[in-house]
Amino acid sequence: MKKGNVSALVCYSSALFLSVIVSGLAIAAENTTPATGTFTEEQFDQGEALYEEQCALCHGQDLQGAAGPTLSGPIFRKTWSMLTATVDDLFNRIVTTMPPSQLGALSEEQNLAILSFVLGRNNVLVGTEELKAEFDYLTAIPIGRGDEELDIAANFIIGFDGLEPTGDGPSFDDLRAAADNASDWLYHNHNYQGTRYSALDEVNTSNVNQLQQTCAYQTNSGVSLQTGPLVYQGTMYVTNATHTAAINAANCQVQWAYDWVPKDRMVWGNNRGVAIKDGYVVRGTPDGYLFALDSANGNLLWARQVADPWLGETFTMPPMIFEDMVLIGPAGSENAISGWVAAFELTDGDLVWKFNTVPGATAGGDETWGNPSNIPLGGGAVWTPLSMDLELGELYVAITNPAPDFPGFLRPGENLYTNCIVALDVRTGELKWYKSIVPNDDHDWDLTQVSPVLKENINGVSRDMVVTVGKDGILRTLDKQTHEALYEVPVTTIENYDVPVTPEGVHACPGVNGGVLWSGPAYHPQENILITPAIDYCNFYIAAEEVTFIPGQLYMGGGLRRDEEMSGWLTAVDVESGEVNWKYHAPRPMIAGVTTTAGGLVVTGDLDGNLLLMNASNGEILRSIPTGAPIGGGVISYAVEGKQYLATTSGNASGFFARASEPVRDGSIIIFTLPSN
Q1: Are residues 176 and 125 in the same domain?
Q2: Counting C-beta atoms within 10 Å of the first and last residue's C-beta, which end of the chain has fewer, N or C?
Q3: Closest CA relative to residue 282, chosen from 239, 253, 224, 249
Q4: Which residues contact 243 (CB under 8 A, 6 or more apart)?
Q5: Model's pTM, two decimal places?
Q6: pLDDT of residue 80
Q7: Dist. CA 357–CA 373, nearest whole Å
């Protein structure tokens, strides 16, 4: 089969690892008019007649199977919509095996017509262009599930050895005290407050030149590596899209490894880490499952599908565990999901509570969602780490963009609760307060982080604060009591911030992959600064005047023309005043985790593969250590038997930010320490 580009399909890799924009996008930058579906009525009708003549005897008049297998229904649709079996594979199956008595008797046009009929009977919409025998075109077609709803009770799996873990710890008391525990790294951002600060000082500004690599753990996979490792009592937990491993945090010896076998279609394919408590190791999957492993041996305890990949929902974020609840939400705003964040039982994944992040859109529109009847609305995904105020029992959630992304004029209003800080009662999911950060967003400017959570003096007044950043490239601190913004600090280039996206197009900064992504600010208490990475990147945005929604497909409502120039920033901001203490400009985007230490260090990594050890007081690079591959995930500090270690990811950080000349490399976790005396 010929491989090639199709005018209605534009490849587009985003920070969320979006792969293909289809159907409802008008790519004005290329003067194309996309199809509203994937085949014509004429193709469908021709295919129906050919099916009756050539296929019905074996596969049944209603496609439900006879001598041959069924060609419609849930099992068929699930089979041919996974990454391992696409519509292109289905077409090749038709071409090479049908009809069995006369192989090769049908022309390519006839086989495409039969494929069109089968797709149409499986909820794929009729369009305005003929189906094409092209790899890129066919592999981008998702087969819809139809009206069937996800049944989380039916999709429950019990582990072979039962539901109870044999491992132990950390306890909930340990998690509550994580901010005061320098030896372990118990949550993605170190603690519930999300400070990313380590009180260890063995490695410091005076001896970083002595730091040396201790070991490396190879994932033996070239998939994106954005995991945030956790460490508990000398054991490190790491992930990629489907792989989970426990290794010795001092010597990288593998204790166990577990590979999830997808059981449904996968959306994107990325994972940023686990949560741990009482012997449970919990994470999400690209096909919408939440599962728990035994920390002692990696055995599966339970798995439950709680997100619906047929609607475009997927899990990329690291969960949070509070008491006996697992807190998580799905990514997928660009697929027009109706977002949510929910709590599930740690012991079996059963639902405890759920907060819908776009209730007005889901209900058909309210005063914050001007909702034309001709388009579905949604968005409001959750894909970055959560944070908490333990005293108040408040859970802070960063809600992402509305959908469709670019034509804000088609959904006038604030579009609540998209691009909001949402504060929930952690035990009930009840809304306590919210703050809209980018109302009626038409640039895909996700709010991405709501952390750290701090108590500071501002102008002599004690303030309970929460820090937030997002893809709009602005760091803000908010008073948690009054919800007022104490200051706002740009951390990357800002251009045409308030200019709406139109069908004629507008150049704006940041672009959809600019600003701050999955790694948010860190706090350094001695210097009293916040340090955040950021991406300097711009787009020419184009809004579509009309959009078409196909469940599970990208629903951007427009197109982009990307700037070629991309760089990165690391910005240190005074917590009290909001003044910039220092800035570091990197030649490539800064997307890796940032960790601060009592040794006066800021530790992060860059896309050239260097582990950067910087002086927290002025941003000076004290040491740059090559790791061999881009760093786009967690960078952490911890201790084993009283000795301080630093660990970093090293691998394919992001397809969007990769250079064409860069090879695909297996992901690694690399561990460093000072030489023993």
Answers
A1: no
A2: C
A3: 239
A4: 219, 221, 257, 258, 259, 260
A5: 0.86
A6: 78
A7: 20
Within this chain, do residues 167 and 135 fall inside the same structural domain, yes or no? no
Question: Percentage of the chain surpassing pLDDT 70?
Answer: 92
Determine which of 168-177, 215-224, 425-434 has the lowest per-residue pLDDT on average.
215-224
* One-letter amino acid of 222: G
pLDDT in tens, 595-604: 999 999 999 9
Residue 144 lies in a domain: no
Assess whether 248 and 357 both reside in one domain: yes
Q: What is the mean pLDDT of residues 155-170?
A: 94
Q: What is the mean pLDDT of residues 545-556?
A: 79
pLDDT at position 146: 59
Of 379, 476, 371, residue with least CA distance to 419? 379
240: left (phi over 0), alpha (psi -120 to 50) or beta: beta
| Residue pLDDT, tens place only, 433-481 | 999 999 999 999 999 999 999 998 777 788 899 999 999 999 999 999 9
Q: How many whole angstroms separate alpha carbon 339 and alpha carbon 334?
A: 11
Domain that holds residue 546: 163-673
Specify whether 116 is located in the same domain as 206: no
Whole-angstrom distance, CA of residue 308 vs CA of residue 306: 7
Burial class (CB in 10 A: 0-12, 13-18, 19+), 626: exposed
**In the chain, % of residues over pLDDT 90:** 71
User: Per the structure block, which two tokens stand in for 437?
Assistant: 């950060």
Is the CB of residue 287 less than 8 Å from the CB of residue 303? no
Tell me how far CA of residue 512 lies from CA of 84, 310, 405, 560, 645, in angstroms: 29, 24, 10, 9, 35
CB distance 223 to 667 below 8 Å: yes
CA dihedral sign, ordered 623, 629, 633, 635: negative
Omega before 541 within 30 of 0, i.e. cis? no
Buried b (16+ CB within 10 A) or exposed e, 84-97: eebbbebbbebbee
DSSP alpha helix (H) spans, 55-191: 56-59, 74-79, 87-97, 108-120, 135-139, 172-176
Burial-class residue 187 by CB neighbours within 10 Å (0-12, 13-18, 19+). buried
Res. 61: pLDDT tops 70: yes
Q: How many whole angstroms separate alpha carbon 665 and alpha carbon 628?
A: 9
Residue among 118, 135, 116, 136 nearest 127 (CA)? 116
φ, ψ (nearest 5 deg) of residue 48: -65, -45
| Structural domain count, the chain | 2
Q: Edge to edge, what strands does the sheet with 595-597 contain?
A: 197-198, 595-597, 601-605, 610-615, 621-626
pLDDT per position as a tens digit, 108-145: 999 999 999 999 888 787 877 888 898 877 877 767 66
* Other C-beta atoms lying within 10 Å of the C-beta of residue 579: 11
**pLDDT bucket at 530, cuts 50 / 70 / 90:** very high
- Residue 642, domain member (yes or no): yes
Q: Do 468 and 355 lie in a common domain? A: yes
Residue 409 near residue 435 (C-beta atoms within 8 A): no
Q: CATH number for the domain including 279?
A: 2.140.10.10
pLDDT at 7 over 50: no
Say yes or no: 255 and 293 in one domain.
Answer: yes
